[in-house]
Design goal:
Blueprint: E1 7-9, H1 15-22, E2 31-33, H2 49-67, H3 72-92, H4 97-104, H5 119-124, H6 127-157, H7 175-190, H8 194-222, H9 224-232, H10 244-249
Antiparallel strand pairs: 1-2
Helix pairs in contact: 2-3, 3-8, 6-7, 7-8, 8-9
Length: about 250
């Protein structure tokens, strides 16, 4: 008897699959959809939730410890970054919302497997090798961003209230915010999702406005000294003109 083109009914005995369907995470029992050339594997992602929780906790601790928000505007910016973290690792090790949206509503052909989360490589058809390249490109940005955030925090912690113009503050005026932007860029290269793509410009806008407010306060506090510093040092993007001192400061 010919098999219907739209689907094949198969029996599922997987405990993971039954648990996923019970919480509304999986497709109807044991269906493989040929129409989109996708095999809906039983929910391996369900067993990855502990990694999602672990990464969210660790990354959130790094965020709040080294950014150290004080005012409500600081907390608002940190809250957006927190939402980015939850959305990122929630999809990476939890529920693949972006893949569901692309396959269900836009009918884009994406295998429902964990490695498909390397979305740029998946959409361009480069598979797991492309995913490895995404990681190789994205993680240096993430690490660079973390270094800027931590080095900026160290400078502020030992500043004793004086104007900071050396080290990473001799490269950009807001190294911690620049570090956030760079880390976000790295994660968008490595593991893009619809929520993180939406949150990214909101985070940039929030920290840009926060930086402007901080600079107004610093001008009133340090006067001409800060105005001269602002003329000399860029806000977020360093001026790479072969300045070895700037490179060494990073």
């Amino acid at each position: 008897m010919p098999v219907p083109d739209f689907a094949i009914k198969v029996r599922s005995r997987s405990r993971i699959g039954h648990r996923a369907r019970r919480f509304g995470l999986g497709p109807p029992t044991g269906w493989r959809f040929r129409r989109m050339d996708i095999v809906l594997h039983e929910w391996e992602w369900v067993d990855l939730w502990p990694y999602a929780i672990l990464m969210i906790v660790i990354t959130s601790w790094v965020l709040y410890h080294f950014i150290a928000p004080e005012s409500w505007r600081d907390w608002a910016g940190a809250g957006l970054v927190q939402a980015f973290i939850i959305a990122l690792y929630g999809e990476m090790y939890g529920f693949p919302l972006t893949i569901y949206v692309l396959t269900s509503f836009l009918e884009i052909r994406i295998p429902l497997v964990h490695s498909s989360g390397h979305l740029w490589a998946t959409l361009l058809g480069y598979g797991e090798n492309g995913g490895a390249i995404e990681m190789a490109i994205g993680y240096p940005f993430v690490i660079t961003g973390l270094i800027l955030i931590i080095k900026g925090w160290i400078r502020v912690y030992f500043s004793d209230g004086r104007l900071l113009t050396e080290g990473v503050y001799g490269v950009v005026r807001h190294p911690q915010y620049a570090g956030i932007f760079i880390a976000i860029l790295g994660q968008l290269i490595h593991w893009p999702t619809i929520p993180t793509l939406v949150l990214s410009p909101l985070i940039v806008g929030a920290y840009f406005r926060l930086a402007r407010r901080e600079e107004a306060r610093l001008i009133s506090q340090f006067g001409t000294a800060y105005l001269e510093y602002r003329q000399r040092v860029p806000m977020f993007v360093p001026r790479w003109r072969g300045n070895r001192q700037q490179t060494a400061a990073l």
